[in-house]
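#structure-requests
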Amino acid sequence: MSTDTPQTPEQILATADTELHQADDELAALEQAVIDDQDVTPDQIEAARSRRYFAGLRRKAAEKKAERARQDAIDAAARQAVADFHEALKAYDLDQVPTLQERIEQAVFELLQLAAGHDRTVTSHARRLIKYSGEASNVPVNAIVGGYGREAIRIGDTSHSPADGKAFLEQALNAAQQRHYEAKKDQDAEHNQAERERLNQLGKSQAQQDARLYADDRPAFEKLPARRRKPAIEHLGMDWDAYERDRARNS
């Protein structure tokens, strides 16, 4: 099994360009030799032309191969991104919603039941205790009976009045929302920082890879867009402007 590293699209095209340029140079040299009245046979010219034609076809094939390599790289990155998404989503799977809704429903039910039971107890016992209120007994009790929801009982220093279950529920919801907003603010900040670090690391990795390409296959490196060449040149500790001037002189 081959362990060779697959060529990048730039390397594929650079290899084909090198072959094409060599074929061009060979044919041009033989043609010039004929003009200079050197010993060149027609077969040599035809063979060079054949190699040039074949190199041209190879260049066209390289373009298709490079495009396939680019698409394969894009598809591989897309598959990995999808896999990363599915892995990250596991912690926030919406299949958990019904269970959480049941827990909320149960908690709300218990809260409202508690308040309703408290109301019934205060109301019913206020009507019982009213006859013992004030000076009717030596027990420090005072009961007030009015319309429903206005009953109250005071025993010593402790007062008991009807409870508002809906108000309790609203307080709980407001408190939960406030906790959510505060937690979300911190979580968003952490996520954004992690995303910046991820993108920065990706940029560094790409620059390192392109810097290796500069050392291993300069023609292929020169086919990279400037947005990739510049970080690689800077990663190598070279001056970008000087590199660009040298590149323009040699182009």
